[in-house]
Amino acid sequence: KDIQAMFVGNLSGGRFIDQEHIASLIAEHAGLSPIPATRTEAACASGALALKQGVMAIESGFHDLVVVGGVEKMTDILTERTTQTLAMAADQEWEAFFGMTFPGLYAMIARRHMHVFGTTREQLAMVAVKNHANAMNNPNAQFRFETTIEGVLNASMVADPLTLLDCSPITDGAATIVLASEKKAKELADSPIFITGSGQASSSIALHNRKRIEVIDSTLGACDMAYRMSGRGPKDIDVAEVHDAFTIGEICAIEGLGFCKMGEGGKFTEEGFTQIDGKIPINTSGGLKAKGHPVGATGVAQAIEITLQLRGEAGKRQVDADIGLAHNVGGSGGTAVVHILEK
Ligand code: COA
């Protein structure tokens, strides 16, 4: 009852369920009217953007207790229309109009990454194998089954080289976080988790307008801002949830966030560094790949997974962590948002 404002990430309630204006609707359903309720949209990064708006509302002193959420209901329409709806977050004039889809765009990024850096098809598959294994220990994951490199390679082709098991699924989901000022948090919670860094960057939506596509440059800008704000660097991060909407997305993310050298994400994955018991566990939740990707909710859900890890409440997928990072990408990289969370 003390919540002063709400920020909700949502990609396209209008297209998925014919419902726009969802922030006020949710505030009403949650019994929070008449608080100010705002929807944020930046494609698949809508959730992390809501989180960032919440952080800014608290940091500015405008509010000291807000709720941040993310939500998407994607399964009420046929895959064909879902794909078309998601593609609205690509460049309409130059990409979607010609039939381009997100699996297609990420397939081009994958091919380019393989060409420039020598990343192998098997290394992409290893991302899916790891994330499906992690999801086995997440009761909230959409897909709790294990797979193998052969299983990924032999799954139905979606957009060459990406098969079904390289893709995140179509998902319904929601996630919520209560954010408070430091003073208020200490009054309300025994072990609050602190957001010490918050960064966001943009890039051209259309792939062909970028200087390079084997690197997601918005990730570099967003993490630079978050690292500077927190005074932390990649070596300080103990656990991370990154945007693996497609397996190549995770490889680009761990490179862009500085966990390994640029171009070495495939090798880093193959050597086991991103495994749950590795140097830097990545996507302990199962990631977008296996936990699911309800687009507007994903960025908030990532921060929740990091919170559970830092609090020691992650059950069978618990790792040893004091500092964590959440990385959410909009579309093929037109937006990236990074948050750093600490005990
Ligand atoms: N990973 C693993 N299994 C998946 C899956 C995925 N991503 N998507 C569907 N499946 C499974 C289903 O559970 C189903 O299994 P069953 O036959 O045992 O029940 C089977 O594959 C077929 O499912 P279906 O719902 O018919 O698949 P689809 O063809 O409608 O959708 C994709 C598959 C890949 C097209 C869809 O998941 C997709 O578009 N993913 C990308 C989403 C996206 O672009 N997000 C935004 C990123 S920027």
Unreliable segments (pLDDT under 50, ≥5 consecutive)? none
Indicate the radius of gyration in whole angstroms: 19 Å
**Annotation field: number of helices:** 13
CA(first)-CA(last) distance? 26 Å
User: What share of the residues lie within helices?
Assistant: 25-40%
Give the neighbour order of strands across the main sheet.
2-1-3-6
Main beta sheet, described? Answer: 4 strands, mixed
Percent in strands: 15-25%
Q: Which class of secondary structure composition applies to the elements?
A: alpha/beta
Q: What's this, in brief?
A:
This protein is of the alpha/beta class and 343 residues long. The protein has 13 helices and ten strands. The chain binds coenzyme A (COA).
What is the fold's blueprint, element by element?
Blueprint: E1 5-9, H1 13-17, H2 22-29, E2 37-40, H3 46-59, E3 65-73, H4 79-87, H5 102-117, H6 121-135, H7 149-154, E4 157-159, E5 162-163, E6 172-180, H8 182-188, E7 194-202, H9 217-230, E8 239-241, H10 247-256, H11 265-270, H12 287-291, H13 295-311, E9 323-330, E10 335-342
Parallel strand pairs: 1-2, 1-3, 8-9
Antiparallel strand pairs: 3-6, 4-5, 7-10, 9-10
Helix pairs in contact: 3-13, 6-10
The protein binds coenzyme A.
